[in-house]
TrEMBL record:
Positions annotated to bind 5-methyltetrahydropteroyltri-L-glutamate: K119, R523, C524, W569, E613
Entry's cofactor comment: Binds 1 zinc ion per subunit.
Protein name: 5-methyltetrahydropteroyltriglutamate--homocysteine methyltransferase
HAMAP family given in the database record: Meth_synth
Enzyme Commission (EC) number: 2.1.1.14
Organism: Mucilaginibacter calamicampi
Domain Cobalamin-independent methionine synthase MetE N-terminal: 3-320
Residues at the catalytic site: H702 (proton donor)
Pathway(s) served: Amino-acid biosynthesis; L-methionine biosynthesis via de novo pathway; L-methionine from L-homocysteine (MetE route): step 1/1
UniProt cross-references to InterPro entries, sorted A to Z: Cbl-indep_Met_Synth_N, Cobalamin-indep_Met_synthase, Met_Synth_C/arc, UROD/MetE-like_sf
PANTHER family linked: 5-METHYLTETRAHYDROPTEROYLTRIGLUTAMATE--HOMOCYSTEINE METHYLTRANSFERASE
Length: 763
């Protein structure tokens, strides 16, 4: 019986990669220094897995920005607009081209937009979307994969296992950038390059190669299924002497089970954390020559593995296949987990005993193998931890459970329809056509972060800290007034993170010191941990929002994070249904909404940036999720008066197949990210005849480039062709926390000018 890991966090235990990348982008360190940081992280990761007793250790799972973008560079899938960048960067600095594709390029007389970014399936990790044309060609453009394997093999020997994004999933996760073809049709051009890569890895000594095909867990068309069959038949016809392992995760194979188990590969990995029920069908259909990798340790959450539950699955598979055909593994790459629990000294010891981070999950994989070999002491210790969590009074609060259970239809119904509310709100706020606003946060400068650090260390009193935060808030308000924004925000200088800030003030949450995970590129987040029943003991935002509103005569938005987003961007308890936890959070946010309204705040934004992210991967499972997710939003928003305007915001999302549910949320104003897609996402709203107001983002805040007034005005003109002018707002794609002030100010000044131009030309 073997053990394996599918991937490991690449940011470094102290976020070394984040810091090194940002220093490189700023010109403060050399390429050599950046690569040295990467080398140290990779070697630490490999040795950690070796020490844990893992038999097959991933390499080429490291990335400077995103593993899908790495694949695009490897395969030469470089959009034509980056051709000028190729002539600007040195031959040995393809990394500058790579970062330009991820972040945009605005220097050397060039102004090139970044590639589109979207969520990796149903996670909060973002990948750079491959762009395909009808005449797309593929070639081995970047050979980093071979250097990665050589380095890993030198350290690990034959335990080193190269990881690649599988060819079919790579195509399906991309986008056609012109009409007249389907990207899956490119498979016959793509596979020969994969054959070349796999054969070269074999020549270097690779015994196992992992091909990630998460799309095998999605609804597939007949053509897409044929692509899988053709691709892997073609690869195995041209490759021998190396074992291919196809990895699926995040959902059951379901109707793709027959397809997956009959691919001509050595091993198949399945996710038995997300979908344990699929094991029976896989065992029923599995051919005699296929090894099975069982993903029994949760790669996406922080809870200790229930060994009895995992062993029941492993033993069932062993009984059918024999131990020598079984591989024990996490459910997916540990990219989605924090790195090491050992350094978390401030967590309540009782609760800490229920938890496991990436390093500890490696130990769990090894311990499961040891228990099967006869080590019952490991099983007994695990049973005690699981029982402690099940019965703890710290996790279970009956009053909170009872309140959520008592919800009725009256709690999720707004007084009047949007058309009636809209008239009252227009009278109250008297905004111009194309009203301008931002999504909420302004740049968190080093000064602001240092203030927070000094407060935590005791170098500042709370009074001193708040005085300086007040001044930063006043400065932001004055600047917004100066440039002519119509609806202001207070800037959120007192907040560390849009979820963490609320979790710190809600019961049932805990926080880590170094529980960082990668969101995109150098952007790391430290998700809260929901360990118990959730409630709101006191006001969370009223003090700062009320202070900000008192500084101006213009409307001031109250800024809250919605319940589904708090759920999605936290590590969630797995001992009760997710909808139950969501309703508890929704009631807590509802209390805050009503407190803001009582304090005189007339516009309240409840961000549900992650509602699309939580959508089940399989169509048949979506109605139930959408029902409770929309209901949770109504619980938060529907207690206010008609003249109180409720906004919501959603991050990178495809809305076509859920647009009726977005409309059912009935927010007075929705803001969405549309600039990178050139307003493409608005098509769904136009076809549906979306009835409420909408702010399509015109400024891509995930890139440092400053869009021109003309560029943003052009985007507004596109929006006006699709939706009623009287329903359109003007705003950036997302919050501005991660940007710098100079680029933020320049971009927002241009945005206000674009709105004025739209008023003149389009109304």
């Amino acid at each position: 019986m073997l053990t394996q890991n599918l991937g490991y966090p690449r940011i470094g235990s102290q976020r070394q990669l984040k810091k090194a990348c940002e220093q490189y982008w700023a010109g403060k360190i050399s390429l050599g220094e950046l690569k040295e940081t990467a080398r140290q992280i990779k070697e630490t990761n490999w040795l950690t897995q070796l020490d844990a007793g893992i038999d097959l250790i991933p390499c080429n799972d490291f990335s400077f920005y995103d593993h899908v973008l790495d694949t695009s560079l490897m395969l030469g899938v470089i959009p034509q607009r980056y051709t000028p960048v190729l002539s600007q960067v040195k031959a040995n600095q393809e990394i500058d081209l790579y970062f330009a594709m991820a972040r945009g390029y605005q220097k050397d007389g060039l102004d090139i937009t970044a590639m589109e970014m979207t969520k990796w399936l149903d996670t909060n990790y973002h990948y750079i979307v491959p762009e395909f044309t009808a005449k797309q060609e593929f070639k081995l453009f970047n050979e980093n994969v071979f250097g990665e394997y050589a380095s890993a093999k030198k350290l690990l020997g034959q335990k080193a296992k190269p990881v690649l994004v599988g060819p079919v999933s790579y195509l399906l996760l991309g986008k056609e950038k012109e009409e007249g073809f389907e990207r899956v049709d490119l498979i016959k051009k793509l596979v020969p390059v994969y054959i070349e890569i796999i054969n070269r890895l074999k020549q270097l000594g690779a015994e196992w190669i992992q091909l990630d095909e998460p799309c095998l867990a999605l609804d597939l068309t007949a053509k897409e299924k044929e692509a899988f069959e053709w691709a892997y038949r073609s690869i195995t016809n041209r490759v021998s002497g190396v074992k291919l392992l196809v990895a699926t995760y995040f959902e059951a194979l379901l109707d793709n089970t027959q397809l997956a188990v009959n691919l001509p590969v050595a091993a198949l990995h399945i996710d038995l954390v997300r979908a344990p029920e699929q094991l029976d069908e896989v065992l029923k259909l599995i051919p005699d020559n296929l090894q099975l990798s069982l993903g029994v340790v949760d790669g996406r959450n922080v809870w200790k593995n229930d060994y009895e539950r995992s062993l029941s699955l492993i033993n069932k598979a062993v009984e059918k296949l024999g131990a020598n055909r079984i591989i024990i593994a996490p459910s997916c790459s540990l990219l989605h987990s924090p790195i090491d629990l050992d350094g978390e000294t401030a967590i309540d010891p009782e609760i800490k005993n229920w938890m496991a981070f990436a390093k500890q999950k490696l130990t769990e994989v090894s311990e499961l193998k040891q228990i099967i070999a006869g080590n019952k002491q490991l099983l007994d210790a695990n049973k005690n931890a699981i029982e402690s969590r099940r019965t703890s009074r710290k996790a279970h609060k009956q009053a909170v459970k009872d309140r959520a259970a008592a919800l009725t239809n009256a709690d999720v119904t707004r007084n009047n329809a949007f058309s009636a509310r809209q008239q009252l709100q227009r009278v109250r706020f008297n905004l111009p056509a194309f009203p301008t606003t931002t999504i909420g946060s302004f740049p968190q400068t080093d000064d602001i972060r240092q203030l927070r650090a000094h407060l935590k260390k005791g170098d500042l009193t709370l009074e001193q800290y708040e005085k300086q935060i007040e001044q930063a808030t006043i400065d932001a308000i004055r600047w917004q007034e100066e440039i002519g924004l119509d609806v202001l925000v207070h800037g959120e200088f007192e907040r560390n993170d849009m979820v963490e800030y609320f979790g710190e003030q809600l019961d049932g949450f805990l926080f880590t010191k170094n529980g960082w995970v990668q969101s995109y590129g150098s952007r790391c987040v430290k998700p809260p941990v929901i360990y118990g029943d959730v409630s709101r003991p006191k006001d969370m935002t009223v003090r700062w929002t009320q202070f900000a509103a008192a500084q101006t005569n213009l409307p001031m938005k109250g800024m809250l994070t919605g319940p589904v987003t708090i759920l999605q961007w936290s590590f969630v308890r797995d001992d009760q249904p997710r909808d139950v936890t969501t309703n508890q959070i929704a009631l807590a946010i509802r209390d805050e909404v009503l407190a803001l309204e009582a304090a005189g705040i007339g516009i309240i934004q409840i961000d549900e940036a992650a509602i699309r992210e939580g959508l089940p991967l399989r169509t048949a499972k979506r109605p139930y999720y959408l029902d409770w997710a929309v209901k949770a939003f109504h619980i938060t928003a529907n207690g206010v008066k008609d003249e109180t305007q409720i906004h919501t915001h959603m991050c990178y999302s495809e809305f076509n197949n859920i647009i009726e549910h977005i409309a059912a949320m009935d927010a007075d104003v929705i803001t969405i990210e549309t600039s990178r897609s050139q307003m493409e996402l608005l098509q769904a709203f136009a076809q549906f005849e979306y009835p409420n107001e909408i702010g399509p983002g015109v400024y891509d805040i995930h890139s440092p480039r400053v869009p021109t007034t003309q560029e943003m005005a052009s985007l507004l003109a596109k929006a006006a062709e699709l939706l009623p002018v009287q329903h359109l707002w003007v705003n950036p794609d997302c919050g501005l926390k991660t940007r710098k002030w100079p680029e933020t100010k320049a971009a927002l000044i241009n945005m206000v000018a674009a709105a004025k131009h739209a008023r003149e030309q389009l109304t």
